[in-house]
Design brief:
- This protein is an alpha+beta fold.
- The chain folds into two domains: 3-196 and 271-291, Creatinase/methionine aminopeptidase superfamily (Creatine Amidinohydrolase, Alpha-Beta Complex), CATH 3.90.230; 204-267, Winged helix-like DNA-binding domain superfamily/Winged helix DNA-binding domain (Arc Repressor Mutant, subunit A).
- The chain has six helices and 15 strands.
- The protein has helices at residues 3-23, 33-46, 107-121, 129-142, 217-229, 246-258; strands at residues 50-59, 62-64, 82-90, 93-101, 146-147, 152-157, 160-168, 183-186, 189-191, 197-208, 235-236, 262-270, 277-278, 281-284, 290-291.
- The strands form four sheets. A five-stranded antiparallel β-sheet has the order 7-6-8-14-15. Strands 2-12-10-11 form a four-stranded antiparallel β-sheet.
- Strand 6 (152-157) and strand 7 form a beta hairpin.
- Helix 1 packs antiparallel against helix 2, helix 3 packs antiparallel against helix 4 (129-142) and helix 5 (217-229) packs across helix 6 (246-258).
- The longest helix is centred in the first third of the chain and has 21 residues, at 3-23.
- The radius of gyration is 19 Å and the shape is globular.
- The relative contact order is 0.19.
- It binds cobalt (II) ion.
- Cobalt (II) ion (CO) is lined by residues 96, 154, 185, 187, 280.
C-alpha cells in the first residue's frame, strides 16, 4: 500500500475515534437521535473528512441501516441498546467503526467488545474467513451469547464501503485468505442466542447504482449528486432536504428506485425482535494489524 493511501486510512480512522470520544458526553436518555446524527456528521466534516455513509443509529432489535429521518422525533430511552455506526472517508479511503451505547451496564455490549477483540487478535496475513468466523462464534458461545448469523464483516477499498468477500460471524468453510495490506471491517452483532435479521419496510439510505433516464428534473439532479457529490457512497434521504422540498424528494426517490438507478438499504430488524449489540473496527491486515479506528498514540 502506498504511504499516502495508508495515511488517508489512518487519518479517516482517527477521525472515527475522535468523533466517538467527542460525542460520548451527549449520550444519555432524552437525546434526540436526529440531533446526534447531525452532530456526528457535522464533526466528521469539521475535521476535514466526509461521511462514508449516513451515521446509522439502530436501536434494540434494529440491527443496522437506520438513520434518522428529516423530522425524526425519537429520543434515546433508558436501557435501550443504541448502536452507532460511523463511516468516515478521506478521498475515498474509509474508516468504519461502530459501538453500542446503553444507559445501564449491559452484558451484550461487553460481549460484543470482547468478541471483536478476540477476532482482531487472530488477524494476520493468511488468516481465512473460516478462522475468523470460528473465532467469533466460539468466543460468543464462551460468553453465553449468540450472533446474528446473516450479518457479516467486509472489506474496504477506495470508495467501496462494503467490498467482497463477506466475513462471516459464524463457523464456515470459506478458505479465502486475507493478504497483507487488505483493509477489512469486523463487526460481530451479538444477541442472547443466535439470531437473524430481515428487511423491514423503512428506507432512509440510498446509493448511486447507474445513470438512467428519468423525467423529473429533481430526480436527475439527485442522481447526479449521488454519483458526483456522494461518490456513489450511501447517502441519507434527510440530506436531500437541504436542496429539495419533501414532496420532490419523495417523487424523485420513487422514480429513481423504480428504474433501479439507486440502491436502497432497508432497515434490518431481528426477526424475533431480539435486542442486539454491535462493535466494529477497521483493520489493515499485517503481522501486527493496524486498527485504524483505534489509533495508538
Ligand atoms: Co461495516
Amino acid at each position: 500500500m502506498e504511504k499516502e493511501i495508508l495515511e488517508k486510512y489512518k487519518k479517516a480512522g482517527k477521525i472515527n475515534a475522535e468523533v466517538k470520544q467527542e460525542i460520548s458526553h451527549m449520550l444519555k436518555p432524552g437525546l434526540k437521535i436526529l440531533d446526534l446524527a447531525n452532530k456526528i456528521e457535522g464533526l466528521v466534516k469539521k475535521k476535514g473528512a466526509r461521511p462514508a455513509f449516513p451515521v446509522n443509529i439502530s436501536i434494540n432489535e434494529v440491527a443496522a441501516h437506520y438513520t434518522p429521518s428529516f423530522a425524526d422525533t425519537r429520543e434515546i430511552q433508558e436501557g435501550e441498546l443504541v448502536k452507532i455506526d460511523i463511516g468516515v472517508h478521506i478521498d475515498g479511503y474509509i474508516g468504519d467503526m461502530a459501538f453500542t451505547y446503553c444507559s445501564q451496564p449491559n452484558h451484550l455490549i461487553k460481549a460484543s467488545e470482547k468478541v471483536l477483540e478476540k477476532a482482531i487478535k487472530i488477524i494476520k496475513p493468511g488468516v481465512s474467513i473460516s478462522e475468523i468466523g470460528t473465532t467469533i462464534e466460539n468466543s460468543a458461545k464462551a460468553q453465553g451469547v449468540g450472533v446474528i448469523v446473516n450479518l457479516t464483516g467486509h472489506t474496504l477499498d477506495k470508495y467501496v464501503f462494503h467490498g467482497p468477500p463477506s466475513i462471516l460471524n459464524v463457523k464456515n468453510n470459506l478458505d479465502h485468505k486475507f493478504k497483507e495490506w487488505d483493509v477489512i471491517a469486523l463487526e460481530p452483532f451479538i444477541t442472547e442466542t443466535n439470531g437473524h435479521v430481515k428487511n423491514s419496510g423503512t428506507v432512509e439510505i440510498y446509493r448511486y447504482l447507474m445513470d438512467r433516464p428519468v423525467r423529473l428534473m429533481e430526480a436527475r439532479k439527485i442522481l447526479a449528486m449521488a454519483r458526483d457529490e456522494y461518490n456513489s457512497l450511501p447517502f441519507a434521504k434527510r440530506w436531500l432536504y437541504k436542496k429539495f422540498s419533501p414532496i420532490k424528494v419523495s417523487l424523485a426517490l420513487r422514480q429513481l428506485g423504480a428504474v433501479e438507478a439507486l440502491e436502497t438499504y432497508p432497515v434490518l430488524k431481528e426477526i424475533e425482535n431480539k435486542p442486539i449489540a454491535q462493535s466494529e473496527h477497521t483493520i489493515i491486515v499485517r503481522d501486527k494489524p493496524i486498527i485504524t479506528t483505534k489509533p495508538v498514540e
